Amino acid sequence: MLGQSLWKTRPALWSFSKFSPIARKEMHYALDQLASSSSDEEEIIGTPNMNHFVNRVFELHRVEVVETLNTLREQPDKAFSFFNRLKEDGFSHDVCTYASIIRILCQCCWERKLDSVLLEIIWREKHLGFKVMDLFEILEEGLEGEDSNLLVRLSNALVKAYVSVEMFDEVIDILFQTRRWGFIPHIFSCNFLMNRLICCGKVDMAIAVYHQLKRLGLKANDYTYGIMIKAFCRKGNFEKAVGIFDEMYEVRVRPNAVAYTTYIEGLCMHGRTDVGYEVLKESRESKIPLDDAFAYYVVIKGFCDEMKLEEAADVLFEAELYGIVLDTFPYGALIRGYCKCGNIDRALEVHDKMMSNGIKTNCVILTSILQSLCQMGRDFEAVNQFKKFRNFGIFLDEVCYNVVADALCKAGKVEAAVELLDEMKGKQISPDIINYTTLINGYCLQGKVEDAVNLFEEMSENGHNPDIVSWNVLVGGLARNGHARKAIDLLNRVKKQGLKCEIVMRNMIIKGLCIGGKVKEAEDFLDSLPDKCFQNDAALVDGYIESRLTKKHLICFLSWLIRDFW
């Protein structure tokens, strides 16, 4: 019971004659309230009487707060609530009170609460009047008869806290200062630090920490070595990576699956997939532990990145032959590889095989397929594939919808593309700027300028601020369809909004007018520009070419040569 435990500590607490009479009276009152608690679950700060005490406690000396926390060591939840309530009511905790609550949290292994306290100290260190390392000094003084691992637990927690906010210089300083107290943090904390350094691109720093920790007596484990293999592979230094394997054998640490798989991944990432594949095969033959599914994936992806697609397909077949359970990623890598090289039929074969093996497809893979079909001029087939996927109940995102909408617009089926926009809304998929811009362009291609303008306004009303591409599409569409005045008005509207796309939009108007057969208007518009530039002249020449006005293009080109010569 809380009351019994506090009653036993009362004589020791009140033996401090240096406390003032007022302080002793306040502490006596507080302990009476704590002792009267009927349940261990009752919150120390939850009662009206304790509220009265807490509202006055900031008048007490910090030593008295430390003693109160000490009496609550066996009840960390109440100690933590007491500590926080003091802070909320204006009490300024110092290094001693922080050390007291940290001791309690370390002893009861409350990692999350300990992390929150340490992060608070880290962020407020300049305003607290003490440094983080001062906590070690305070806690070391009270270690007699206590858990000898307290400082190790604190250092581990500090490493984790500093690493979580990427304050790597500070955490490295702590690692090497802890040697003063005769220990270094646990290997798990050191592994956590080195791995995060690599993830943040600080590979050289991770390697330096590893070597320094070894000099300090750190005994590396299989994960430590795996992290170093990853570090050297990231640098492309495979000789060093092999050296780590040799070192593991010397100290009789068996490499784990992560170490081998990381080595294979490193080779594949640096264009040496053939070597990585050999390591994979040798590992299987030697019955070396591997993360088989991931290892095969990185090899397949590596061959795809090197556009060795038949080799990738052979590796995929081998994985299936061995009964390795693959997921979407290796199939997706191979499908995207075939799409990239224009072999869409082979991509569809692999996709059908994946689906028949019970592996679900996704919108990323489907986007690659649809885009490839459109690039090959097979827009009609892309639309049919889209409908097929949709009927299967596969989730299709706004990118998939946009690919098909663009294909429909180019085929002159703008209304069907607009229906897709409504379908997206019905499925709670919010159309983005790209979706709207595609349809605006479709309307412009069909000469339906009013519909394009209305859709442009709808896009703005739905919270999508038009980007430069959107403005250019609409301006160019207006110009092509003989609405030069409206196009120029839009240009002035963009200038008022401060968007820096004036040169490009001028060019769109010039080319658009030429394509729409308004060559004279394009020339007049160019002449009217007060600060026209070379790009505007070039746009007029492009307009001549697209309008097949080759004589005008030649005359203009010759005039440039003469002007530049003189």
From TrEMBL:
Keyword Iron annotated: no
Pfam families, sorted: PPR (PF01535), PPR_1 (PF12854), PPR_2 (PF13041)
SUPFAM superfamilies: HCP-like
Keyword Phosphoprotein tagged: no
Classification via Gene3D superfamilies: Tetratricopeptide repeat domain
Intervals holding PPR repeats: 221-255, 256-290, 327-361, 397-431, 432-466, 467-501
InterPro entries cross-referenced by the UniProt entry: PPR_rpt, TPR-like_helical_dom_sf
This protein's UniProt keywords: Repeat
Family the UniProt entry places it in: Belongs to the PPR family. P subfamily.
Stored PANTHER family: PENTATRICOPEPTIDE REPEAT-CONTAINING PROTEIN 3, MITOCHONDRIAL
UniProt-recorded name of the protein: Pentacotripeptide-repeat region of PRORP domain-containing protein
Lineage: Eukaryota, Viridiplantae, Streptophyta, Embryophyta, Tracheophyta
